[in-house]
Amino acid sequence: MASSLTQSYLRWTAKLSNATEYLAVAIFAGIVLVNFMAVGARYVLADPIGWSEEALRYAIVWAVYLVAGATFRHGEQMMIDLIVIIPSDMIKRIAALLSLLTTLVLAAIVVALGIPFLMDTGQVSPSMRLPMWIPYASVVIGYLMIAIQAIAGYIEQPVLGNKEPAK
């Protein structure tokens, strides 16, 4: 049962990781498009798009936080890999578990403190008049993705005896 549940979780998180990566790619494509439009409007038409810089800034933040979870899933986050050179599998497992627990605690703090903050901003952005909970939500959703994918990455780690990621 646990193995089936684990495999289901890994398949679901792999699909979630792919979906967030594709969404981030679409956001980055939109960023490039809006940036070209803004440059063209400013230098060719001499009529700058006032909201473009703000939209680009928020879009970049959303794209980065969306792929943060996938980064953890694939073990591509910045880390100190000094523990990897230690030959003891037991120490590697302890270090991996400590890293996971630290990540989950940080993610839980950000999500727990971030959700009430989102509900109470009442602010709007200066140019686009966008409710500020929308850009701020990227942090909460990003850390939620980090927690979900860090667990999946931990389960798939070769040091734990797993060789193949879920498809």
Largest sheet descriptor: none
Backbone CA Rg: 20 Å
- Structural shape: elongated
Approximately how much helix is present in the residues?
over 70%
Our count of domains comes out at: 1
| Unreliable stretches covering 5 or more consecutive residues | none
Please state the average pLDDT score.
85
Q: What structural class results from the helix and strand content?
A: mainly alpha
* Separate helix tally: 4
Keywords: Cell inner membrane, Cell membrane, Membrane, Transmembrane, Transmembrane helix, Transport
Subunit structure: The complex comprises the extracytoplasmic solute receptor protein and the two transmembrane proteins.
Pfam family, one: DctQ
Organism: Cohaesibacter marisflavi
Describe it.
The complex comprises the extracytoplasmic solute receptor protein and the two transmembrane proteins. It comes from Cohaesibacter marisflavi. It is found in: Cell inner membrane. Belongs to the TRAP transporter small permease family. Keywords: Cell inner membrane, Cell membrane, Membrane, Transmembrane, Transmembrane helix, Transport. The chain has one domain. The longest helix is centred in the N-terminal third of the chain and has 42 residues. The protein is 71% helix and 0% strand. It is built from 4 helices and no strands. The protein has 167 residues and is mainly alpha-helical.
Distinctive features:
167 residues; mainly alpha; membrane; TRAP_DctQ; cell membrane; transport
How do the helices and strands line up, and which of them pair or pack?
Elements lengths: L1 H42 L8 H22 L15 H31 L13 H23 L12
GO cellular component, one term: plasma membrane
Function: Part of the tripartite ATP-independent periplasmic (TRAP) transport system.
Protein name: TRAP transporter small permease protein
